Amino acid sequence: INVGGSGGTGGVGGDVSVSNSGTIRTTGADAAGIVATSVGGGGGSAGVIIDILLGGGGTNKSNQMKLNIGGSGGSGGVSGDVSVTNSATGSIITTGSKAYGILAQSVGGGGGRGSSIVSITGVGGTEGTGTLGLAIGGAGGTGNDSGDVTVNNLGRIETSGADAHGIFAQSVGGGGGTGGLVLVGAAAGKNGQQSVAVAIGGTGGGGGDAGDVTVTNTGVIITRGDGADGIRAQSVGGGGGDANLGISLGTGGGALIGNGINALLGAVGGGSGGVAGLATVNQNGSVTVMGRNAQAVTVQSVNGGGGTLTLDFEGITSLPGTPLESIIAGLGSEDTDDSAGVAVSMNMVGSQVVAGAGGTGSGVQSVGGGGGTAYLNLGFVPSAGTPGAVTQAPDGAIAL
What whole-number distance in Å separates Cα of residue 90 and Cα of residue 26? Predict the structure, then answer.
């Protein structure tokens, strides 16, 4: 009996409050005038289980029984509330690309990965033989909630670089952890051969809920770069973690049982997405955007996506010296969970000026999460190489 260790819980992010009444100037890329961030700690990943059990039997009986249970990933930590105020005498001027005037964000901690399991069994005997095994991948940890974000601008904000928003305020729930991958092989002797080895992949953790985001502008905001919005406010629920596969190779009915269970996991095993908060912009001042494809005001509330059923070797190939890491890297996917959209609110009595091609005065989005999918990014195709070797096909599939 092997039980994987569980991951620890992420720490709590504290509240953050910033108030500016002076002058701030920056000139470099990614050099925001004010950055106020609270981030919950990520949950720890559970330990990997590698179990090899071989044996020989006597003249009458030879049997093995094993149970591998993966540990759960740790839950992420809660992030705090974030508040930023640029007073009437405050002035923020940036010139670099992606150099926001104000960046305020609260991000919940993501859940840790559940235990992955590699198990090999084998028995032998002159008359009676048998194997019985069950391996259950660890569940991904739960992503935690993010706090509320509030930004008030009474002064002046100017940016000149591409994608340098005047105010970027967001609250993002933590993503759920991925369930553990399970690989099980079983064999029995020739006489009285019996083999039952069931592999069940771990379920994904649920995403955390996002907090409310409120931006109020009574001052002046000017952006000159392409793709640089005047105000961008968004609340995004955390994505649910992916469920993972259990793969059973044996001489008996265990593989069939395991495949049936994992088909069910494909429908229900992905973690549910988190719910977004209310996103509100009160625009009572002046917002001018001069670059191409820039929006004066963007307000978004997006529910988190639920996890998919995925084949993901990361939990195993991350072990030191594993040769498959370079081949398998990048497998896996994210998808979404079915959930209704959340309300957004825009209250505008001030002025918006849009000068660039492709720009818009305001963009409002409320997006519900889509349903999760069962996804397997792996192809088994004939190989012209050495028999039994692992190669990579031209289309990126794995050839065995």
Answer: 14
The per-residue pLDDT for range 343-386, each reduced to its tens digit, is 687 888 888 888 888 887 877 777 766 555 444 443 333 334 44
Q: How far is CA 328 from CA 42, 200, 204, 279, in A?
A: 24, 21, 20, 39
Residue length of the chain: 400
pLDDT tens for 325-341 read 333 333 333 444 445 56
DSSP 174-221: PPPPPPPPEEEE----STT---EEEEEPPPPPPPPPP--EEEEE-SEE
Please name the residues in contact with 93: beta carbons below 8 A apart, sequence gap of 6 or more.
23, 24, 25, 26, 33, 157, 158, 159
In angstroms, the CA 384 to CA 382 distance is 7
Return the structure tokens found at 380.
């088994």
Q: Residue 176 in contact with residue 240, Cβ under 8 Å? A: yes
Query: If 0-12 CB within 10 Å is exposed, 13-18 middle and 19+ buried, where does residue 60 land?
Result: exposed
Q: 259 — phi, psi (to 5°)? A: -65, -40
HEC states along 151-171?
EEECCEEEECCCCCCCEEEEE
- For residue 182, which of 273, 256, 100, 114 has the smallest C-alpha distance? 114
